[in-house]
Amino acid sequence: NGYFTFDPGFVSTASCKSSITYIDGDKGVLLHRGYPIDQLANKSSYLEVSYLLLYGERPTPEELKEFVSMVSKHTMLNDQLVHLFQGFRRDAHPMAIMCGVVGAMSAFFHDSLDVGNPRHREVAAFRLLSKMPTVAAMCYKYSVGQPFMYPQNDLSYAENFLHMMFATPCDNYKPDPIIAEAMDKIFILHADHEQNASTSTVRLAGSSGANPFACIAAGIASLWGPAHGGANEACLNMLEEIGSVDRIDEYVAKAKDKDDPFRLMGFGHRVYKNYDPRATVMRETCHEVLDHLNIQDPLLDVAMKLEKIALEDPYFVEKKLYPNVDFYSGIILKAIGIPTNMFTVIFALSRTVGWIAHWGEMHADPDNKIGRPRQLYTGDDVRDF
Ligand code: CMC
Prior knowledge:
The chain is an all-alpha fold. The protein has helices at about 35-45, 45-55, 60-70, 80-85, 95-105, 120-145, 155-165, 175-190, 195-205, 210-225, 230-240, 250-255, 275-290, 300-310, 315-320, 325-335, 345-365; strands at about 20-25, 30, 35.
């Protein structure tokens, strides 16, 4: 037992080397391939960031055009995969459907099972990046009993997702460009975050040589929990439960009460001990979207007041608990018309490129080994049967 480092939650264990994303949690810095997240969110597109994450450099205009064209070639799902949706209950959580459908893709793309081949890994990346908005939107359409909408490959990535979510065969839906831009920003802000639980899960699953679709399904499962990607859904539910600014003190008191398991959702982070830089961009985007749609959402007032109180309260100050990426995202998604149970699906869609970039980086690393942590055994000593 004495030979191993005991580090529950991997608080101080680096599980791998990576050149994709850098976080300085004390300073509130997040860089992808060296570029600050606020600059990427404000000056580039999700597919440009995806290229950067996957290939390590920003694309030239020609490279970006080729990349966008490749992504748009893989957006459809095999028709038999489409039938898989019918096996789910209509009231199934969309994350349950997404997890199942993405895992089932393993049965459709046999070339992607050859994970040792870099070209096959690249094709798997294209397939996943292209198909995730289709799968996500189908999870929604299935839950509301509407027909699936085919992707329209002349639309941008975010527009296409909005089209598949909100168009129906009987209308002429056109995505609002400001909303599409906000959606794209949300995708960028969730694209990667180094060795979080879901990315570590993808790496661990992939370290055995498992196929990429199964690995991403594992990542989706890990993301689902409320301490991770499920926090955006839990945060909006919490804001709705608080309901008005005069009830905030009661909830702050609950969050501080050690006998009460309640936590302020959208607050705190394992790595950030400063303001999450993604939350800053998310808050700005939230104001832009609500102004554009001319929505006065009382939940935004609750969120802003809650943030102010928490940032001044000694409990939150001492524990360095700041709003994280999930704090404002739900208010934007709600304003766009996306139901709460789809929030984590959108997180999964956005994070897929990060997962795939890490999976690819792991396979390209000659030092890659199967992940195999040890344990501290606490059971019985040897005894006779
Ligand atoms: N509300 C109240 N107290 C909190 C909160 C919170 N949201 N977060 C942490 N604390 C307290 C916690 O009780 C503990 O206190 P003490 O030291 O007295 O026992 C201390 O702060 C440290 O918390 P921890 O749980 O040991 O920290 P962790 O690094 O293991 O957990 C976390 C990080 C994100 C799971 C946690 O802060 C949390 O549960 N936050 C709410 C859920 C949430 O918003 N998750 C989204 C994270 S960002 C998106 C993503 O990347 O997934």
